[in-house]
Design brief:
170 residues; alpha+beta; 5 helices
């Protein structure tokens, strides 16, 4: 946890309990937890506001009312490489879309040998849901590792695809 993460909340969501931490700049952590829901703690009112906004936006997302998060995020505790990977993922893989590790590797201008490094960067994502690493699949379209577990990843992909309209053949 960053020295500047000065507010904390365990939020009970329909997907499970989420630990959310924030500082005065923005949200620094969203992670699944076995902890029971708690009220927000912390002295800084701006940080607490970020927590409440994040929890509200996550709830809106999980009910299908929100497609994009606008809560401020503080990525300063991430390496430059991890930030680059997550920014590319966010910029190229919008709501209802998926990508693969290989495709993301190519979009970043990296060699196929770097796909594991890309996967490791995604595994270090401290802002689950807000930065959509759940949208990354294996080369064959299979579900692969996710910090919240594969059932949560499947639920998120299903949530985002629920309102897609497929053209009728004929």
């Amino acid at each position: 946890m960053s020295d500047t993460a000065i507010a904390r909340l365990v939020h009970g969501s329909t997907l499970g309990n989420l630990l959310i931490e924030a500082n005065q700049v923005g949200v620094t952590l969203v992670a699944f937890t076995d902890e029971l829901p708690t009220e927000s703690t912390g002295e800084n009112s701006t940080a607490r506001e970020h927590l409440e906004t994040a929890a509200d936006q996550i709830d809106e997302y999980l009910t299908g009312e929100r497609r994009q998060f606008t809560v401020p995020m503080d990525l300063t505790d991430m390496s430059a490489f991890d930030r680059e990977v997550l920014h590319m993922l966010e910029a190229t893989t919008g709501y209802g879309r998926t990508t693969t590790y290989g495709a993301l590797t190519r979009q970043l201008g990296r060699t196929p040998a770097d796909a594991r490094k890309i996967g490791a960067a995604l595994a270090r994502n401290r802002l689950l849901l807000l930065l959509p690493c759940h949208r990354v699949l294996g080369a064959d379209g299979s579900l692969t590792g996710y910090a919240g577990g594969l059932p949560a990843k499947r639920a998120l992909i299903d949530l985002e695809s629920a309102d897609l309209v497929l053209p009728l053949g004929g």
